[in-house]
Fold this protein.
Amino acid sequence: MRSSRRRPLLVPALLCALALLAARPTDGTDADGGSATALGPQVARLYRDAATATRQYEDGRRAAETQRAKALEYERLLDAQRQKTDAMREDLGRIARAQYRGGGGLPLTARMLLAENPDELMRGQRAVSRANRAVDRAIGENLRAETRLAADEAKAQAAWQALDKRNAELAQLKKKIEGKLEAARAQLEGQADSSVAAGSCPGAVRLDQPELPADPAWVAPVETYELSASFGSGGSRWANRHTGQDFAVPVGTPVRSVGAGRVLKVSCGGAFGIHVVIQHAGGYYTQYAHLAAVAVDQGDRVEAGQWIGQSGTTGNSTGPHLHFEVRVTPEMGSALDPVPWLSEHGVPLR
């Protein structure tokens, strides 16, 4: 099966907070790797930490690219300004050389004494002087513009380099969190398989619930996924046609109730491994199978988006995924195609 993983501007305080999250020990674990009660919440926390680190790394990367583009643009403008200043200096040089050639290098007083029309000579000299002052002012303005552009370029480069350094630190932190997540997922999967093999369902783990959606009455059973085996597909894995929609997700991914309802069954063993069945209004039931852990007990009331368990690969499963069914009775044999059913309830799957 395909597996989908989402490797969910950075400020120092958030970086420190994430470092503490990555470094904290597993709560309630023993020498054998801890209980499912401890591992389930730990995996959920690590998922959130990894998502936060990934999101902030991407934000920082985009910010660094923006700052780099600014530095390059300032550098381009600065080069253009310098060329403009050099051209004006060249113009001033040409004027000076022309004056020298026209006057033969004589001082102004001598040129006036030798001139046939001193008034005309003075008017020409004043015009040249005004032109020189104008060029001097223009060069001064250009030099000040160069100074401002150089300062802006230096600031942009400094910000770019600082962001790159922070992103390198966050990349290391992200890698550390994901390493801890991989280890915790493997432990959770091993404990779930042991429970199913022993025929005893693990107790409910109480996860820190996310903020529930305010508007939608229905949601997808997992937030991020890839669709794999579809309803009605055939193959050697099933005795008949596939009775649900599979969502390829890593072990430990939080699984959500698609709508409000009551937990009708929490069970383990058989082809579905650890699974939950929820009864909804209107005569519909949803099933969530191949779980690694459950977060509800039979009889619990649940809301749309509430975490009811964590995905796994228990039962007849070829890899980590969630098997999701919609039924018109609590039992097998009454399944509907979940994709159009969810779409009709305002949840188009992508």
